[in-house]
Amino acid sequence: MTQVNVYEAKTRLSQLLDQAVAGEDVVIARNGRPVARLVPVTPAPKRRERGAWKGRVWIADDFDETPQELIDLVYDGPIEPE
Questions:
Q1: On the chain, which terminus has fewer CB atoms closer than 10 Å, C or N?
Q2: 24 contacts: CB under 8 Å, gap ≥ 6
Q3: Residue-wise pLDDT tens for the chain (82 aa)?
Q4: Distance between CA atoms of residues 27 and 9, nearest Å
Q5: Do the Cβ atoms of 12 and 26 come closer than 8 Å?
Q6: Which domains does the chain have, with CATH numbers?
Q7: What pTM, to 2 d.p., does this model score?
Q8: Strand-pair category, 26-30 with 2-5
Q9: What is the Rg, in whole angstroms, of the alpha carbon atoms belonging to the chain?
Q10: Angle at alpha carbon of residue 46, lines to 52 and 13, rounded to 5°
């Protein structure tokens, strides 16, 4: 952990930012008491584009239809697996 006073932080800001980006804990103190911590900013996730998969994916017409055989098994099938 690196702790610097406000005056030193002003004069070495670029170097302290590099240290924070590299993962080092950088604390800025006033009169010997920690008041702030420099941390790297995590980039916001890229926004998804609407229609990005258009023309690449095909969904069958009967995609959401449950086969009668499966319905019969759910309602009338054995309780224990065979």
A1: C
A2: 1, 2
A3: 899 999 999 999 999 999 999 999 999 999 999 999 999 988 889 998 999 888 998 889 999 999 999 999 889 888 776 6
A4: 9
A5: no
A6: 2-38 (3.40.1620.10)
A7: 0.54
A8: parallel
A9: 30
A10: 160
